[in-house]
Structures are given as structure tokens and as C-alpha cells.
Amino acid sequence: MIRRVLKSCKYSSRKGLTPAAPVHSNKEDPATQTNLGFIHAFVAAISVIIVSELGDKTFFIAAIMAMRYNRLTVLAGAMLALGLMTCLSVLFGYATTVIPRVYTYYVSTALFAIFGIRMLREGLKMSPDEGQEELEEVQAELKKKDEEFQRTKLLNGPGDVETGTSTTIPQKRWLHFISPIFIQALTLTFLAEWGDRSQLTTIVLAAREDPYGVAVGGTVGHCLCTGLAVIGGRMIAQKISVRTVTIIGGIVFLAFAFSALFISPDSGF
């Protein structure tokens, strides 16, 4: 029996036959790669939005309006504005994907580095009362809006300024959201966010990351910041150190720029 086995082995070696080796593919599963891209974009978006929005003008707008008016109305108006802005920013960023990814990847990395350096410089030069100055500026702006609402109330007759309802005309519950306060929160937040650092960051992220992950992560980040502002109000607005948040934000931006040295543009995330 042993002799037969040896003969067969010799015959195989003479014929040049060798046992087939298992083939291992280095190519990742497309579904796994897509999930990793989504998760990476989600984490990147939510982290940069949080460090950009805490102590920002939109944060103070939501905080102060929530102290004066119905919190749910303020939250709905602010979140609608931020959701629209996030979707628009993602579309702007995704439109740049017609350019080869290697160019948009390194251009976005350079922008992250610039944003990070600027935030670090701004944070180190800020005074400890920087947040209080921003808070007072927003309060003055909202005071002007309140005066306009008072004039409108006198012209249109008695009504509830907080909900926009009138004592003479009954309105349905869903009209509680379609009120002057809802419109005010929507317009003020949208205008304050337009051209802001967080919008530019979302555009840059959408140009290099998974757009769905950026959209979801950016929206969740805005929800967390705005919800915190609405619930905490003045107490949180006064406790937050804008200087510290700005410095941390600069470090986060530089960390994303530094990560480009280890991640290939063609890695998929």
C-alpha cells in the first residue's frame, strides 16, 4: 500500500502536478465597504457639527427663543432650517464628485487643515467672555424681532404672540407650528447658518465621504446641539466656554486632515 502511494507521488511530480493552493481574495465585500464608508462619514459629520455648533449663533438663537416662546415650536422651526441647510450642503458637495476623487480628497483635506488652524488661532485669541458677547448680540437681534411682532399684534388685533393664534378665529392644532414664532425660528436659523463654518464643513465632507452618512450625521449633530439649547436655555448658554469648544474643534479638524496621510483616496471612505 505504501509503495503504491509513493509511486503515485512520483508520477504526479513527473507530470508537474502540484496540489491546488487555496485562493484568498484581498478584495473587500462591497456591502462591507459601503457600510464602513457610511459609518466613517456619519462619525465625521456628527463630530465636526457638534464642535462647530456648540456656542455658535444658531445655538444661542434656539436657546434664547426657547426661553421666551413655546419650546416645541422653536425646536421645529430651527430643525427644519438646519435639515434643509444640511441637505443643500450635501448636494453642493456631492456635485463636486464629477471631479476625480483624488483631487477633491486632497483639496478637502487642505480645507480641513485650514479650518483647524483658523479655529485654533481664534480660540487662543478669544477672551473668556466671548460667549457672553455672542449671547448679547443674539438677544439684541431678537429684541428687534419682538418689537416687530408687537407692532403686528397691534395692527392685526389681539392674539397670542407665542403661538400666533387669535382669540377671534379658531385654529386647528397643527396650525400651532405654522406661527410667527415658527417662521422666526426658521428664518433666523437658516440665515445664520448660511455661509457658516458648519455649512462649509458639510460641503467639504460630502465631497470626500459617503453623502448619506454625511446627511444623517449632520442632521443628528444639529438635533443634539439644538435640542440641548432648547432644553437647557440660558443656563447652558452661559456655562459653555466658546473658547474651549473652538480649540477642541480646531483639534478635531486637524485630526481629520492628518488622517488623510494614512487613508488612500480610493479606499472608499
UniProtKB/TrEMBL annotation:
Record's keyword annotation contains Transmembrane: yes
Membrane topology, record value: Multi-pass membrane protein
One of the GO BP terms on file: Golgi calcium ion transport
Transmembrane segments: 74-96, 102-120, 174-192, 212-232, 244-263
Example of a GO cellular component annotation carried by this entry: Golgi apparatus
Record lineage: Eukaryota, Metazoa, Chordata, Craniata, Vertebrata
Protein name: GDT1 family protein
Domain of life: Eukaryota
Keywords for this protein: Membrane, Transmembrane, Transmembrane helix
Keyword Hydrolase: no
Gene Ontology terms, MF aspect: calcium ion transmembrane transporter activity; manganese ion transmembrane transporter activity
Subcellular location: Membrane
Family: Belongs to the GDT1 family.
